[in-house]
Design brief:
The protein is an alpha/beta fold. The chain contains 10 helices and 12 strands. Bound molecules: glutamic acid (GLU).
C-alpha cells in the first residue's frame, strides 16, 4: 500500500471493553474511507477515562490487526498527551473563552432551560458569576470544571453520510472537575495535531460533531471531513452489547467475523484488499445493521 503524502483518517477506541463486531465494522469502514482516498490511517487509544485498562487496549489493537486494519506509526495514547490539551486550554483561557463551573449534573438537569434547548445542554448557570460569587462557590469545596464560553448556540458540519448537519453548541466542558481533559477537547486537539483530516466513526457521535468543529475553528484548526456511519443494533433495535451473545472476535473467530462485516456492507470480499476494491461510499447501507448473534 502506498504511503499517502498528506491527510489521514483514524480509529479511536476507548478501552472500556473488548471491541464487538459493530466497533470492528466501524473501524473497517474508517480504514476504507481513508485508504480509498489515499490517506494515512492512525490509531488512537482514548484512555483518558480508562487509564488502567491497558490490557483491554492491547487486546483491541490485536483484534483490529487480526481483522486486517493496518495503521501508520505507533498508536497514540491520550493519557500521554496532557501537554497538548493543557496548551489548547491555556490558549482559550488567554482569550477569555473559558470559565469555571461548579454545577453538578443534578444542578444542570434541574436548572430552567431556554425553550428548545436540548436536555443536558448547559444552561449557562456559572457563565456570568461575579468574583465574589465565584469565591463563595470555591469555598464549597467542589473542584470546578472548565467550560468553553461559546458565542453561538449551533454550528453546521458537512458529513459524507448525513449531508449538512446543524447541531447544538453549548458551553461544553473542556476540563472536568477531576482535572481530566474532556472528550470533546481531546478529540479536537489530537485530530488536528496528528494531521487527521477525515473523521469516520459511529453515528452516535454525530451530535457531538458541531461542538467539535466549532472548537476546532476557535483553535485555528482546519475542519475535518466527517462521515458518521450507521451503528450495529440488536434484534430490539438497541445498540449492540456484550450481553447480546457472541459479539467479540474471540467469540466469533476472525474469518467468520470478517465475513459477517463484509456481508453486512454488501461487498462480499475475502480480505481487506478485495474489500477496498469494492468499496463505494455512495453505496453504504444507510440504516443500522441489525445483528442477531447466534
Ligand atoms: N473513543 C470514542 C468511542 O470509542 C470515539 C471517539 C471518536 O471517534 O471521535 O466511542
Amino acid at each position: 500500500m502506498t504511503r499517502p503524502t498528506s491527510g489521514a483518517g483514524r480509529f479511536a477506541p476507548s478501552p472500556s471493553a473488548d471491541l464487538h463486531i459493530g466497533n470492528l465494522r466501524t473501524a473497517v469502514l474508517a480504514w476504507l474511507f481513508a485508504r480509498s482516498t489515499g490517506r494515512g490511517f492512525m490509531m488512537r487509544v482514548e484512555d483518558l477515562d480508562d487509564r488502567t485498562h491497558y490490557d483491554v487496549a492491547e487486546r483491541q489493537l490485536t483484534d483490529l490487526a487480526a481483522i486486517g486494519v493496518t495503521w501508520d506509526d505507533q498508536p497514540q495514547w491520550q493519557s500521554r498527551q496532557h501537554e497538548r490539551y493543557d496548551a489548547a486550554i491555556f490558549q482559550l483561557a488567554g482569550r477569555g473563552l473559558t470559565y469555571e463551573c461548579y454545577c453538578s449534573r443534578r444542578d444542570i438537569l434541574s436548572a430552567p432551560r431556554a425553550p428548545h434547548a436540548p436536555e443536558g445542554a448547559y444552561p449557562g448557570t456559572c457563565r456570568e458569576l461575579t468574583d465574589s460569587e465565584r469565591a463563595a462557590k470555591r469555598e464549597g469545596g467542589r473542584p470546578p470544571a472548565l467550560r468553553l464560553r461559546a458565542d453561538t448556540g449551533e454550528y453546521t458540519v458537512t458529513d459524507l453520510v448525513h449531508g449538512s448537519y446543524t447541531g447544538v453548541v453549548d458551553d461544553f466542558v473542556l476540563r472536568r472537575g477531576d482535572g481530566v481533559p474532556a472528550y470533546n477537547l481531546a478529540v479536537v486537539v489530537d485530530d488536528a495535531q496528528s494531521g487527521i483530516d477525515q473523521v469516520v466513526r459511529g453515528d452516535d457521535l454525530l451530535s457531538s460533531s458541531p461542538r467539535q468543529a466549532y472548537l476546532a475553528d476557535l483553535l485555528g484548526y482546519p475542519q475535518p471531513v466527517y462521515a458518521h456511519v450507521p451503528l450495529v443494533v440488536n434484534a430490539e433495535g438497541k445498540r449492540l452489547a456484550k450481553r447480546d451473545g457472541a459479539v467479540t472476535l474471540a467469540e466469533l473467530g476472525v474469518s467468520p467475523a470478517f465475513a459477517l462485516i463484509t456481508e453486512s456492507l454488501g461487498w462480499p470480499a475475502a480480505d481487506m484488499t478485495e474489500l477496498l476494491a469494492l468499496f463505494n461510499p455512495d453505496q453504504l447501507p444507510p440504516e443500522p445493521w441489525v445483528y442477531q448473534p447466534v
